């Protein structure tokens, strides 16, 4: 199944699609308001981009520096080449403590590695504590957005889920009431948790510390009550200096939701006395992406989700249509690196309008990379035959002035005689689904231009 | 395990691009007024109240939290004695924590709260309500200036900006997700 087929399922519900589109656009406008209030915002984007570029250019050095500092702080550092190793390391730590009750705050990396199913299969209860993530965990769904994991759901859906799992009243749809029910339900989990797993927003090489940003406070509550903290981070989370955080903390929340900063920006450097802190550093394809000059900039991503909120395709097709851990424009350039065949349709799920690149806080050239992935996919024969041949034919046609002249003339005069069933044959002309052909002009631009010269 | 470490480092070394410069982050200046701080913090759900003197602290708290039964504070006596060894069961009943903030950030309403001021790392999020007391002369304009003033981030520390909140259900803002349900900043 490709992106278009999955998107077709989503847009089958027109009202919901419109709601989804408008809600995300509202988040985008909140972002604009927050961004325009900071006169130096464009300078900050440039600084963030340069800091990330620099870090990637010395990634081995900063990884080692980070490890050394973290160890000095009393933190256990683990290295995982891939998802399986990441999962095995975490399961091992949990087993060493004979723990069965685990809370987990937001981590796209653990989603990417499918940690939850692995732990559950091994008899470990793992509870996602971010409200949006808990909702989709109860529904056994994947997140549909980086920072708004349950944005594909309506409050009625959440109400029904909570009625079934948390015992709220049937038909209760008030977000205030539902959130309070989740607070009570999750508080019991926080108090009982033996191990807390978290993601990592930033890892500071010079201090060996990690920074976690949340609005709910779920990471702090979980980590600071449990005996063991396990932070899972991709190698691209590094930044060199503590002061670099000033740039990223000014960009992240403004770009994500239009807030001036997240409620909690928490710096974990050393374990509390008598407690344990582990950091798992994960590659899982990232060094491979680092070796692709055209695509390595995707590793600068700080997971704000701004590219999704602005994307005309994402807003109308929903996060699940991407069938990837990270959906939307950024996901469409990250996912083919992991599995080119499975995600071959994603770089085409874009109009190449460039809005994603315009809002990206670290200046990733997202739409250029989408375009470049298309070339790579075509080279690797990972695009459908119909697209491949029609593009080849079109290429030949458009590069021949003679063919274009004759073809244009034929089309201008002949199109009105073609039967509708032919111009709108679903299998030959996907473009015409939901579109009408334009009124053919009387003359071509070429013909018109020649007339102008005569005058 | 060490083999994965070597593998990752070797791949990073082999695949990294040519070295680029690490930029210097300038101080962009900005408005460091208590008014700006108040306006921003109020906008994200916090409340700012001026204290005329230290003797006002307890009367103001009594007025703000008349229902409060169990409070914990480093700033006045007679409260629940909390330290790093306090058990989860005891912490879970705290309904008011009154702690000293170190640095306020006017652009986003955040306050730096180091571990040394927390009594217990979990206290600022497990308490039902949080009060941070802040010297208004410690307000800076931006995060750049805040980080410049931090000697280090210690073992643990957090910038706290407003009460715990979520908008995960249909983007409706709800104050009081998992952390403190309210944040009051007492400026002096």
TrEMBL record, chain A:
<keyword id="KW-0813">Transport</keyword>
<dbReference type="InterPro" id="IPR017900">
    <property type="entry name" value="4Fe4S_Fe_S_CS"/>
</dbReference>
<dbReference type="InterPro" id="IPR024185">
    <property type="entry name" value="FTHF_cligase-like_sf"/>
</dbReference>
<dbReference type="GO" id="GO:0006089">
    <property type="term" value="P:lactate metabolic process"/>
</dbReference>
<dbReference type="InterPro" id="IPR037171">
    <property type="entry name" value="NagB/RpiA_transferase-like"/>
</dbReference>
<keyword id="KW-0408">Iron</keyword>
<feature type="domain" description="4Fe-4S ferredoxin-type">
    <location>
        <begin position="291"/>
        <end position="321"/>
    </location>
</feature>
<keyword id="KW-0411">Iron-sulfur</keyword>
<dbReference type="InterPro" id="IPR017896">
    <property type="entry name" value="4Fe4S_Fe-S-bd"/>
</dbReference>
<keyword id="KW-0249">Electron transport</keyword>
<dbReference type="GO" id="GO:0051539">
    <property type="term" value="F:4 iron, 4 sulfur cluster binding"/>
</dbReference>
<dbReference type="InterPro" id="IPR009051">
    <property type="entry name" value="Helical_ferredxn"/>
</dbReference>
<keyword id="KW-0479">Metal-binding</keyword>
<dbReference type="Pfam" id="PF13183">
    <property type="entry name" value="Fer4_8"/>
</dbReference>
<dbReference type="InterPro" id="IPR003741">
    <property type="entry name" value="LUD_dom"/>
</dbReference>
<keyword id="KW-0004">4Fe-4S</keyword>
<dbReference type="Pfam" id="PF02589">
    <property type="entry name" value="LUD_dom"/>
</dbReference>
<dbReference type="InterPro" id="IPR004452">
    <property type="entry name" value="LutB/LldF"/>
</dbReference>
<keyword id="KW-0677">Repeat</keyword>
<dbReference type="GO" id="GO:0046872">
    <property type="term" value="F:metal ion binding"/>
</dbReference>
<protein>
    <submittedName>
        <fullName>Lactate utilization protein</fullName>
    </submittedName>
</protein>
Automatic annotation (TrEMBL), chain B:
<protein>
    <submittedName>
        <fullName>LUD domain-containing protein</fullName>
    </submittedName>
</protein>
<dbReference type="Pfam" id="PF02589">
    <property type="entry name" value="LUD_dom"/>
</dbReference>
<dbReference type="InterPro" id="IPR037171">
    <property type="entry name" value="NagB/RpiA_transferase-like"/>
</dbReference>
<dbReference type="InterPro" id="IPR003741">
    <property type="entry name" value="LUD_dom"/>
</dbReference>
<dbReference type="InterPro" id="IPR024185">
    <property type="entry name" value="FTHF_cligase-like_sf"/>
</dbReference>
<feature type="domain" description="LUD">
    <location>
        <begin position="87"/>
        <end position="187"/>
    </location>
</feature>
